[in-house]
């Protein structure tokens, strides 16, 4: 199989810190081009990572016939329009999360991908980390009994008014920035869809974005998600998987450093002082590289699975319902989507 040529839209921090180093090392992948509306920035990043071509517009990159895959880490409001343009140009697309800001947008993207015969995916790199795979294996093996609850905590502090995360009109705010992780996590481990959600938000008085959000979701199989996310609190990440006969705790579930082993605590739930706890480790892994390699395999197999579409649609429908619930201050039903949660 030939290496896939990747084109990068923009010079976002996530691209420079995580995805470009991952693509440089990923099997079956080749960094071929990068574009920015400021061509000098594109040229600088191209020089840093040894990327052959730099463009001064996104359209020029999308017109490059040698590009197979587009990576889209642009601000949230540009995810859908540029992904649609890339699909129309015959490219496969790996788009940062959240891929869409509404269910209608998600439906438009999945329909376009299917019509074009191209692979599109929402870049939840966490699904590819060995700790997540190990955790799901433990749950499937019944090590914590029946999975009943997922509890997620994800917060950081960023009060920069110029940061895209703090600009409401372009999709900023805690729910869409990091709450999307909680939603995707629960769907991944439960393997089904939420049917109703509730949500409360504390809005920044200057930015208008949600700076502290707590939500809950009731799943069709009876499981429940509870989460708190914040853009203006201490740096914390934690995930607890609660079962009828024990629980699992992941201490760095979302951004585990690639050069550090991941730690999982498997607890029988029989001793509050930790007497029933077993500490497990997973070897260091670059989840971004694993994600790129998995995406490349999907492209080579021409495999835009029904599960991938269901994940895009399910995440978007849930985030949209959480937003409605925060406004109505009532439980809100999830708008129906087709398909089941994917792998």
Written description of the protein model:
This protein is α/β, with parallel strands linked by helices and 343 residues long. Helix content is 34%, strand content 28%. The strands form 2 sheets. A 9-stranded mixed sheet has the order 14-13-12-11-7-10-9-8-15. The chain has a 6-stranded parallel sheet with strand order 3-2-1-4-5-6, with helices on both faces. Helix 4 (79-88) runs parallel beside helix 5. It is globular. The two termini are 24 Å apart. 48% of the residues are buried. The model is unreliable at 339-343 (pLDDT under 50). Pfam families: GFO_IDH_MocA, GFO_IDH_MocA_C3. Keywords: Oxidoreductase. InterPro entries: Gfo/Idh/MocA-like_OxRdtase_N, Gfo/Idh/MocA_domain, GFO_IDH_MocA-like_dom, NAD(P)-bd_dom_sf. One of its GO terms (molecular function) is oxidoreductase activity.
What keyword list fits this structure?
single chain, 343 residues, alpha/beta, Rossmann fold, Dihydrodipicolinate Reductase, domain 2, nine-stranded mixed sheet, six-stranded parallel sheet, 9 helices, 15 strands, 34% helix, 28% strand, globular, disordered C terminus, nucleotide binding, oxidoreductase, Gfo/Idh/MocA-like_OxRdtase_N
């Amino acid at each position: 199989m030939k290496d896939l040529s990747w084109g990068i839209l923009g010079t976002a921090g996530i691209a420079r810190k995580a995805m470009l180093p991952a693509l440089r090392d990923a099997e079956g992948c080749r960094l071929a081009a990068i574009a920015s509306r400021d061509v000098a920035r594109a040229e600088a990043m191209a020089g840093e990572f040894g990327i052959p071509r730099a463009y001064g517009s996104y359209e020029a990159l999308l017109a490059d016939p040698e590009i197979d895959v587009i990576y889209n880490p642009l601000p949230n409001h540009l995810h859908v329009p540029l992904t649609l343009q890339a699909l129309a140009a015959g490219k496969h697309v790996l788009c940062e999360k959240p891929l869409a800001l509404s269910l209608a947008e998600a439906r438009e993207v999945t329909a376009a991908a299917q019509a074009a015969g191209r692979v599109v995916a929402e870049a939840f790199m966490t699904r590819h980390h060995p700790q997540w795979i190990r955790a799901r294996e433990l749950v499937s093996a019944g090590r914590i009994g029946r999975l009943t609850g997922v509890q997620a905590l994800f917060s950081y502090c960023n009060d920069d008014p110029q940061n895209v995360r703090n600009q409401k009109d372009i999709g900023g705010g805690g729910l869409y920035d990091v709450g999307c992780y909680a939603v995707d996590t629960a769907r991944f481990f439960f393997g089904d869809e939420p049917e109703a959600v509730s949500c409360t938000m504390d809005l920044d008085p200057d930015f208008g974005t949600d700076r502290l959000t707590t939500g809950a979701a009731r799943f069709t199989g009876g499981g429940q998600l509870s989460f708190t996310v914040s853009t203006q609190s201490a740096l914390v990440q934690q995930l607890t998987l609660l079962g009828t006969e024990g629980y699992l705790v992941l201490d760095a579930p979302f951004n585990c450093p690639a050069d550090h082993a991941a730690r999982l605590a498997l607890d029988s739930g029989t001793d509050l002082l930790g007497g029933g706890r077993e500490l497990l480790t997973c070897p260091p892994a670059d989840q971004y590289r694993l994600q790129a390699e998995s995406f490349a395999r999907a492209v080579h197999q021409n495999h835009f699975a029904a599960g991938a579409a269901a994940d895009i649609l399910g995440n978007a429908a849930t985030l949209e319902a959480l937003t409605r619930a925060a406004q109505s201050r009532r439980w809100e039903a999830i708008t129906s989507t087709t398909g089941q949660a994917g792998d």
